[in-house]
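Catalogue entry: protein
Contents: sequence, fold tokens
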Amino acid sequence: MSDARQVDLLRERAYQDHMSLQEALALCDTLPCVDIDTLMGRWHGSEISTNNPLDGLLATFGWYGKEFIDRDHVHPLLFSDCRPARRRRGCAWSSIAAESAPP
């Protein structure tokens, strides 16, 4: 099987939302590098089931995705609070940012 065909099969499995961890890692390894300017902004993410015991946990807690402010400031875990009672006023956004300790 050609490498291109194997990548196509992995992407198809990802779209079906079910693949092994090894398949998910193999798919990520095939993706091209992305220029940092392309990443700027807020990105809506989604989970792919890999049969990990923590599958679905991010969605349960309202994970939305990531936000890239600039090359040095990123919110890797962006959560929304869009419960029905809040939708009338708009969603509330929060992030969990890891702060690095000075050396």
Remarks:
- The radius of gyration is 17 Å.
